[in-house]
Design a protein that fits this description.
The chain has about 950 residues and is an alpha/beta fold. It has 34 helices and 32 strands. α9 packs across α10, α23 packs across α24 and α24 packs parallel to α25. The structure holds nicotinamide-adenine-dinucleotide.
Length: about 950
């Protein structure tokens, strides 16, 4: 720890080493990782450490010794904070604590719960811990200091539990389903505790879970069987700006309930996570960003607890002497007796403080986590972060030996000294203006967002089944043929009936577009960009309605639909700014000659999108073409015309002149083909399957009568994406990452993971956990917020997946198969499957399946894994889970994909941050949402003028910076 405090880079690398250590199985691997992590930290590593590693070459006895020493050191450190690896060891710790007059609360460390079986195991462990500890402590002599409170005995056994471990998918998005699952497993624990006279405390974790955790706590404890039971409590985190109001809510509830509960007030252990997570998502940061603010809030909340100690029994948990002392002083001034509240510290931390408090006859309880070291590492790293943080009281007092006056200063004073006015609210949300900022996703863990979405679903449901005309040159046109769009989850439900364009309509649309082309090209780029900016505003205003349309028309689950709308907004905002940048001509003047390199539109663009990102992809391709000055004919996918119709409407409302955008629904093979073949078309922007993409390429390349140009084709096509799992990977994260990448939107994403390549050593363990996690994936209707795997888009897609499911029986071993049950009678539901032991040559491992089917392949080592990963004709997305810096670097260099993701899921690219697109048969290599994309829709010209007239050249530029073609 001393080492890590010296330098942040060394700290990060040593913590990474500790995090990886439990997954490293032999000395060679431990030595290799240590070397790699030290190399990453660079020059900041103390030289003795480098020498120690260098003197122990791989395979030598010294390497064995080095590995043993490193493992011993880390395990020893873990033992400081973890009270034991099994219940027996935990009991020893508890007994030792009691002898010193200190109480305990036992916390069961666990891996992330990713299957129902694991949630059951957690529940069972809690039950046996309660009965085991009660049995062992019953005969212990009473210790009044800890076993007796002001109103009677205090339970000797005290258990802290995490509600997120009582279900596979704790998510406020589907609050009711989560609450039902959690309550189902929680009630037996509470009953057992009640029966045996034990106490249960509910821990608090990330902010996203807070409201639902509170809600479940209040709900269960209001049930008649628990109504009069006081031996329960919950955590409040002072670093959250909302906590004070939450405490008021809890006070009112507890008063109404008529029985007190305990509140453990902490500062909060997820500060770094909360800040990074909120900033990454563009959400308001929920925690105070200044340490003194959390400290001040802690004092404010402790006062509140002491004032209401009759119904909210205070348990102040901190290692900050000032924070604790402030609470004690308030208690004293209010006359709250010492045995009406307690003070808590963590095992292995703040021991001198605990000793001093016991000596002063306060009731002290130690939070004692126990469990295997492997899952305990996440806990250990949190503790290490806390101990080594520059803001830590412990570090400031015991290591840095700061002045006592400094340490005990009132946090409000600290704030004033820092010249910062105290903020009562969290930092406000990022406002989107120039420069470009990604549109934040909706935070569905907040109730108002869920209510807005439910209201939109209701509104849109009432608008289903309408008929829609073609729109040519701003005129509505009916046609004899119609195209029905239906709800994939309820095939009998009509979403919209569309007039179907014919080949004649297609050629008329091209003529109209050609007429509109010069005027649109001459419109200043800034005016064209303004249309996109206005469209972004309208999209934002209607985001819930548009997402609701996606739910019904494409069976997109809530978050996926919301993400698609956000991406459409991003495309408008991003390409608008990009066009303004590109519209500035590049100037390369020399004396006597001016040179302007400028861009001009290509001409008439045809946009042919798929259905799977029903707003973002058509929107991105359309607005890119438009802002570059090209009129567009938008032929939506047959499966998602309604959403494309809304897009066309919004662009019209945003000020697009009629004739510049034609909306032409119809069959791809019919009018799609006609548009591609039309000699009047200059550019085709296509996203879809490789089969159609190649056909479009072939057809567009053909010269036809009346054609005086070569058509430009932008084609984004399929993928056969792989995630490699290295043998030191964090399996919790890897399994969850694969499940998300493979089954999100039923695997119907071009970026979806359809191959998992696992290194031999961990192959079996990984397959078992992946299979369990896959079985826990919820299959349902898209409008149900719990759903992960909904129906497939149409009957043809469902038939295709059934065919591959059949093939799976011969090409591999099906280790998990979901069960859609009676849903199959209503819509295009299929069973998601995981197929292990598939060979790279198998059809399942080579063909794009585009559904909830994931195959697992075994690789002997990393080189083998890379060869398998690259051994397909696609190169779209790929990923690796590994903790080895060297292996990550190797993958970076040799995994040939357009978008490579390291230690995270491989779907969900974000405009500008992760420009998206692949090569080989996945596409032509253009990156949607990147800075090169608009150039595909533009031609570049160079204009050179000789400014020398009879030996005289003007000093100033005669052409100015007006660009001719773009009309700027
Ligand atoms: P698809 O190729 O069947 O259809 C795409 C579009 O092409 C539709 O609008 C369709 O009407 C039209 N079309 C069909 N035949 C045509 C023809 N002969 N001439 C002209 N147009 C024709 O693909 P899909 O099922 O809609 O979408 C799924 C595919 O899209 C998958 O292969 C997926 O990987 C791919 N995709 C790729 C990306 C990417 O960025 N690379 C993104 C999304 C989807």
């Amino acid at each position: 720890m001393g080492l890590t405090m010296g330098d942040p880079a060394v700290k990060v690398q040593l913590f990474r080493f500790i995090d990886a250590l439990p997954a490293l199985k032999d000395a060679t691997s431990v030595r290799r990782h240590l070397r790699e992590f030290l190399d990453e930290a660079g020059a900041k590593v103390p030289s003795w450490m480098n020498v120690a590693v260098d003197l122990a070459p791989e395979g030598s006895m010294r390497a064995e010794l080095l590995a043993a020493t490193a493992t011993w050191a880390a395990t020893n450190m873990a033992r400081r904070f973890i009270a034991g690896s099994d219940p027996r060891e935990a009991l020893q710790t508890v007994l030792r604590l009691r002898q010193r007059g200190i109480g305990f609360t036992a916390d069961l460390l666990g891996e992330a719960v990713i299957s129902e079986a694991e949630a059951d195991i957690y529940q069972q462990s809690c039950l046996s811990l309660i009965s085991g500890l009660v049995g062992s402590l019953d005969d212990e002599p009473e210790r009044p200091g800890i076993d007796r409170g002001f109103d009677g005995p205090v339970p000797r056994v005290n258990l802290s539990i995490k509600l997120t471990s009582l279900t596979t998918d704790f998510d406020a998005l589907h609050a009711e389903a989560t609450a039902a699952a959690v309550c189902g497993r929680l009630r037996p624990i509470l009953r057992e505790a009640q029966r045996l006279g034990a106490y249960v405390h509910v821990d608090m974790e990330q902010y996203a879970h807070k409201d639902l955790t509170l809600e479940i706590f209040r709900r269960v404890l209001s049930e008649p069987e628990f109504l009069n039971w006081p031996d329960v409590g919950i955590v409040a985190q002072a670093y959250l700006a909302e906590t004070f109001d939450d405490l008021k809510g809890l006070r009112d509830w507890a008063e109404a309930r008529g029985t007190p509960v305990t509140i453990r007030l902490v500062k909060g252990a997820y500060w770094d996570y909360e800040v990074i997570h909120a900033q990454e998502a563009g959400w308001p940061v929920p925690v105070y960003t200044e340490k003194w603010q959390s400290d001040a809030n802690f004092e404010r909340c402790s006062r509140f607890l002491m004032e209401n100690s009759r119904v909210l029994r205070p348990a102040l948990a901190s290692h900050n002497v000032r924070s604790l002392a402030a609470g004690l002083a308030v208690a004293e001034s209010l006359g709250v007796p010492k045995n009406a509240y307690e003070l808590q510290v963590l095992h292995g931390m703040g021991e001198p403080i605990a000793r001093a408090l016991v000596a002063s006859e306060y009731r002290v309880r130690v939070y004692t986590p126990y469990g295997a070291i492997l899952p305990g590492m996440a806990y250990l790293v949190r503790r290490l972060l806390e101990n080594t943080s520059n803001e830590s009281f412990l570090k400031a007092s015991f290591v840095d030996r700061r002045e006592v006056d400094d340490l005990l200063r009132n946090p409000e004073e600290v704030g004033t000294m820092l010249g910062i006015r105290r903020r009562t609210k969290a930092t406000p949300a990022v406002v989107i203006q120039a420069p470009f900022c990604n549109e934040p996703l909706t935070d569905f863990t907040r109730r108002p967002a869920r209510e807005a979405m439910l209201a939109a679903l209701k509104r849109v449901e009432g608008a289903l089944g309408r008929t829609y005309p073609l729109r040519l040159d701003g005129n509505e046109i009916r046609s004899t043929g119609t195209l029905d769009s239906t709800d994939p989850g309820r095939s009998s439900r009509l979403v919209g009936r569309f007039a179907m364009a014919t080949a004649d309509h297609a050629s008329l649309a091209v003529r109209i577009a050609r007429e509109a082309a010069p005027g649109w090209a001459a419109t200043p780029a800034s005016d064209r960009a303004a249309v996109l900016m206005r469209a972004a505003v309208i999209l934002r205003e209607r985001k819930f309605d548009l997402a609701a349309w996606e739910v019904y028309e494409c069976a997109k689950p809530w978050r996926e639909a919301d993400g698609d709308v956000a991406e459409a907004i991003d495309f408008c905002e991003f390409y608008a700014r990009e066009m303004l940048r590109l519209a500035q001509p590049v100037v390369r003047d020399v004396p006597g000659e001016t040179n302007r390199i400028e861009v001009i539109p290509r001409g008439v663009a045809v946009v042919i999108p798929p259905w799977n990102f029903p707003l973002a992809i058509p929107c991105g391709m359309t607005v890119a073409a438009l802002v570059a000055g090209n009129p567009v004919i938008l032929k939506p996918a047959e499966q998602s015309p309604t959403i494309a119709w809304h897009l066309a409407e919004i662009l019209g409302e945003a000020g697009l002149p009629p004739g510049v955008l034609q909306f032409l629904p119809g069959e791809g093979e019919d009018i799609g083909r006609a548009l591609v073949e039309d000699p009047g078309v200059d550019l085709i922007a296509f996203t879809g399957s490789v089969k159609v993409g190649l056909e479009i390429n072939r057809s567009a390349a053909q010269s036809r009568p009346g054609m005086d140009h070569v058509k430009r084709v932008i084609a984004e096509m399929g993928g056969k994406n792989a995630i490699i799992i290295d043998d030191d990977a964090d399996l919790d994260e890897a399994v969850l990452g694969v499940v998300r990448s493979a089954f999100g939107y039923s695997g119907q994403k071009c970026s979806a993971c359809s191959r998992v390549i696992v290194l031999d050593r961990i192959y079996e363990a990984f397959v078992v956990r992946l299979a369990e996690a896959a079985r826990a994936v919820v299959i349902g209707q898209a409008e149900d917020p719990e759903t992960v795997v909904g129906p497939l888009i149409d009957a043809e897609a469902a038939d295709r997946i059934r065919m591959y499911s059949g093939l799976a029986e011969t090409e591999g071993r099906v280790v998990a198969r979901g069960n859609p049950g009676p849903l199959v009678q209503h819509g295009h539901f299929v069973a998601p499957i995981v197929v292990a032991d598939v060979l790279p040559s198998a059809r399942l491992a080579r063909e794009e399946i585009f559904g909830p089917v994931v195959v697992v392949l075994r690789a002997s080592d990393l080189a083998d894994a890379i060869e398998i990963a690259n051994g397909t004709s696609y190169a779209l997305t790929g990923g690796i889970y590994s903790r080895s810096p060297a292996n990550i670097e190797r993958i970076r260099r040799s995994f040939r994909v357009g978008n490579l993701y390291i230690n995270r899921p491989i779907t969900g690219a974000i405009v500008d941050r992760q420009p998206f697109g692949g090569f080989k048969l996945s596409g032509i290599g253009t990156k949607a949402g990147g800075s090169d994309y608009l150039r595909e829709f533009l031609l570049t010209r160079t204009v050179t003028e000789n400014t020398l007239r009879r030996g005289f050249a003007p000093e100033d530029d005669p052409v100015g910076t007006e660009s001719i073609g773009t009309g700027l």
